[in-house]
Protein: Trehalose-6-phosphate synthase
Amino acid sequence: MVPELSVNAQDGAVPDSLVVVSNREPYSHERDDDGKIRVQSAAGGLTSALDPVMQSRGGTWVAWGSGDADMAVAEEGMIEVPPSAPTYDLKRVPLSDAAVQGYYYGYANQVLWPLCHEDTGRMWAEPAYWDQYRAVNEQFAEAVDTVADAGQPVWFQDYHLALAPRAVRERRPDATLLQFWHIPWPAPSVFRHCPHSDVLLDGLLACDVIGFHTAAYAEQFLHCVDRAFPAATIDTDSGTVVRGGDRTRVVANPLGIDVEAVRDRARTADVASIRDTVLGGSRSDPSIRLALGVERLDYSKGIPERIEALAHLWERRPDLRGAFTYVQKASRTREGIAAYRRYRADVVDAIERVNDRFGTGDWQPIVYTEANLDNETLAGLYRAADVAVVTPHRDGMNLVAHEYPAACVDGDGSLVLSELAGAATHLDGTLTVNPHDINAIADAIERALELGEAETSDRLTRLKHSVEALDSSQWVARQFSAGQSL
Ligand code: F6P
Structure:
């Protein structure tokens, strides 16, 4: 069994300066309708874990320059960030429209995303997608080569960049290269659906360290390597692969959240007014309990099953009609792909049907919002919710499952969690469900609403402890310390 890295790593393992490489950039420049340029900082786990480290250590972050004014403000793609008080460099890689279509909407999100989420029926491996994925990974490698100083470790992030490590290794044989794979890694029987599986593995094995959220993903990766390259020497106990001139350590290094930041935002949130704004004044009767779901409109998130489960619950428990409202906060995503557009339409239709069926003059069963909520509002919404429902079919980790308990600063709140999210491996105190089991989801929501005070508090205490143990502050140090023990 691949060991999980010890929770407390040495800060000394983190280099004084590093190069981070990711698809998304931490700061983008966008042009408003009136022509003014404004800066946007990225949300999400990756940026909130890595931006503070880059700010304290310095170095260069290489990423796709996706903002429409990105190149206008960056000389040869280079700009110092954060824009308000610069501490490190951002190197923006400009991508053509064809590259974005083939690499991002194509290979990354119509081949690797469904493959790793074990949803191969959605894979579409158009040959041009692979060509663009290879070309863009080369482009990233070229950019790394122009900015990395000798001795600066290079840390690649996620499934967009599986080939870039090999391309950098060819240019820099002695460089220290790392990768963190933020999404699940599939079983070998699924991975072989990919027509380019061996090339992808070869690209990744150019790294000294590869991190995954769970030991199970790391182990599946090793099984895939074993099947593809029988001549490789694999030690599962230490997670080490030796193949040709490459020696790679494969580790489980779960990424959590900045717990204190979420807790602070929840503490200062004006919960009553956030509840009013999100629910709409007339529907925000404070005696109505709230269940909450927060996700991108991605087909891996299990939203339709959850809506069906809610319908079952209101059907079999008429007394719960008017007693609780489910709030779905949804973000539109990857709409260049038809499957994502269809998914959004299906979710909206399903919610409308449930609201038509059960709604009354003064109670709306499901409140759906695509509003762009800032972090403070989101923390207030978590705090207002009695139950969070996180039921993805599969998910690398799922940080909503970490944020919700951290934001429950009043000591109440229950988490219904899919057993197939990476978070289920790490969080204690959840009400765990199979995300395809509609009855089980309905039962779990019902149970969460009816748990006694003592059990709610006990579960929440355990949840908070597990979330604190994975605080993101240690994640970077853990990844680098794995490299030291090679
Ligand atoms: O979970 C994987 C991931 O790539 C995250 O790193 C990112 O926050 C999320 O998906 C959003 O995806 P995209 O960059 O395609 O909008």
Observations:
- Residues 249 and 485 are 9 Å apart (CA to CA).
- The chain has two domains: 11-256+472-484, 259-469.
- Residues 24, 44, 46, 158, 182-183, 333-334, 396 surround 6-O-phosphono-beta-D-fructofuranose (CB under 6 Å).
